[in-house]
Amino acid sequence: MVKPADTRTAGRKPVARTTRSAAETEKIRAALAARRDELSAEYDQTLSEITELQRDRLTDSAGDDQADTGTKTFEREQEISLANSIRERITQVERALERLDEGGYGWCEKCGDPIPVERLAAFPSATLCVKCKQLEERR
Ligand SMILES: [Zn+2]
């Protein structure tokens, strides 16, 4: 009769790399969430500006000459591309939050060191620590 394999040693954890404390993870989460709220507000603001520009175009374009119309179209296009880039950044922050939950966020891809909270808050898409980033830029 074969005994079931001894499982007592199977669950052994691999040697832990430097881990972030829960408090630090929370700090990053809070920074990212604040960033997301900030961007959302900016996004809403930009959207209402676009709506306003559009309304202007519809209401008082009767007396406009071609140049005015051109300027307004240009302004509106700029606002739209601004809105798109904000939307993009919001997505980045949301992805960062997901990765944070999975434990795969905030580590330097090069040296494996934790990326400082302040840096992550400023650049949610950062994948390198400052040191590695600087080395990369110097090349
Ligand atoms: Zn690094």
Could you give a quick summary of the protein structure above?
65% of the residues lie in helices and 0% in strands. With 139 residues, the protein is mainly alpha-helical.
Q: Could you walk me through the main structural features you see in this protein, from its secondary elements to its overall organization?
A:
The chain is mostly helical and 139 residues long. It has a domain at 20-102. 65% of the residues lie in helices and 0% in strands. Helix 1 (22-59) packs antiparallel against helix 2 (66-102). Residues 108, 110-111, 113, 128-129, 131-132 line the site of zinc ion.
Protein topology:
Elements: H1 22-59, H2 66-102, H3 117-122, H4 130-138
Bound molecules: zinc ion.
